[in-house]
């Protein structure tokens, strides 16, 4: 079971790592054509979301992999679930599809619970 948890954790981390790097390293204006919801965020907010996603991705893998403060892995997962909750609210407000954010949020919750139970 721990192997399955590691697989989901790493895949989730890769998704958030890619999203975080993109949002934090790309100017908001260049993201607008593909991420229309960026209209509702300031430059600083967009960058902050990217940094949070990047740090969350690192937090999903590094603590458990190194054994240094492994309790941070479920904390990172739950923080990413909260982030996806905010994303869902933003997409609902804009009347946009919420399925990707719901899937990522649920996976983050599953990973967080998994690390609490199995970790």
TrEMBL record:
This is DoxX family protein. It is a multi-pass membrane protein. It comes from Agromyces badenianii. Its main location: membrane. Keywords: Membrane, Transmembrane, Transmembrane helix. It is found in: Membrane. GO terms for cellular component: membrane. Pfam families: DoxX_2 (PF13564). InterPro entries: DoxX.
